[in-house]
Amino acid sequence: MTGNCDNKCEKDQRMNNFEYYNPTRIVFGAGMIAELGRLVPDDAKVLLTYGGGSIKRNGVYAQCMEALKMVEVLEFGGIPPNPTYEVCMRAVDLCRREGITFCLAVGGGSVLDGTKFIAAAVPFEGDPWLFLEKRGEVVPKDALPIGCVLTLPATGSEMNPFAVISKEATREKRAFDSELIQPRFSILDPKTTMSLPRKQVRNGIVDAFVHVCEQYITYPVNTPLQDRQAQAVLKVLIEEGPKTLTDPFDYDARANVMWAATSALNRHLQVGVVQDWSTHMIGHELTAFYGIAHAESLAIVLPVRWRLDKKRKGRKLSQYAREVWGVEPTKKDEEAADEAIDKTVTFFNSLGMPTRLADYGIDARECAQKVRARFNERGSAFGEHGDIDGNRAAEILLQC
Ligand code: NZQ
Ligand code: ZN
What we know:
The protein is of the alpha/beta class. 48% of the residues lie in helices and 10% in strands. The protein has 2 domains: 25-192, 3-Layer(aba) Sandwich (Rossmann fold); 198-398, Dehydroquinate synthase-like - alpha domain (Dehydroquinate synthase-like, alpha domain, Up-down Bundle), CATH 1.20.1090. It is built from 16 helices and 8 strands.
């Protein structure tokens, strides 16, 4: 199944050393927004950040304000999906002007990521875009504390140190991370997700699913616990996800999907293993250039990324086929891998998720050229073998 080099490398592979620290307090369940009063410091001057107004329509804003009536609260709304540097910088000015001491993000991953950026940018003296442009070289030294009321299960941002920000001026979408921007607490009330449009529910399930895959479908390094944890999250998304589409008011399904999405990217699955993330990095370019939603971009790239690297990913793909999709153990690895890829596409489609560039009217050739140029210009290379560079990304996109 695997090439010679990989067989040799893999034989010696063992779990990587790791350090795991997760300082986010999770407060989970119906009615838990009422705990905000206890979770936010008494003397805080709070900036409540939100998006386009869903929280005002579904009652989440009213619940937050009720719980926060003992502290001073200012608001900043209008953080867009794929939060932009331009909008976030307006909130940074407001925080500085008003002496804000605590940021409370109320919404989905975009509001939270935008708030993470704002929190790190406020005390920073240079241009905070450098956190993204020179990730790892220019890092936040300080940040306002952040709390979160999550309304969309998808990104895992509520329990991780990552943020993804877009810059309109240059059509870029880039990520950064810092322990300092990890939420101090996140309130996850599954009831808040009942007002989500079907499309956002679908996107959330697919995003969480692909997060697991980026950490799981690589090559084995003898990590049976992490592998089984990854399989467990995938199975819950496959079993419970569709229920949230059929009956938006099924609390149990909402709760299970919400916790699965958090578990998919709270870094628990990535300890000790090798990771891919090339689907995400190519996907970010599709969003940056064509404006398609994050999860939509992933559903297009992932199946082709797997098909083109089926040999090297073969052992994990066939394990995934058997353990998650129940493919017969007697099937040959390659056949099992093919079946798993097909079943994944069928699952995405069953949620109403398209999986081809053409579904969005995007020309694969033009797209491949643009992404190749951007990867080359930045010297980017991703994937568990570090070889998904501009040319490989273009090769993938040409088949999307
Ligand atoms: O803006 P509002 O009015 O709140 O409406 C939002 C938005 O239009 C709506 N929505 C959210 N909760 C709702 C609701 N509508 C009704 N009822 C509710 N309860 O949903 C729309 C999409 O929201 P958004 O926050 O953009 O979605 P999501 O949570 O999927 O976040 C996507 C962003 O997160 C980034 C993505 O790249 C994208 O920018 N990611 C962040 C990651 C991280 N920080 O770890 C990892 C991910 O891979 C991802 O890259
Ligand atoms: Zn994602």
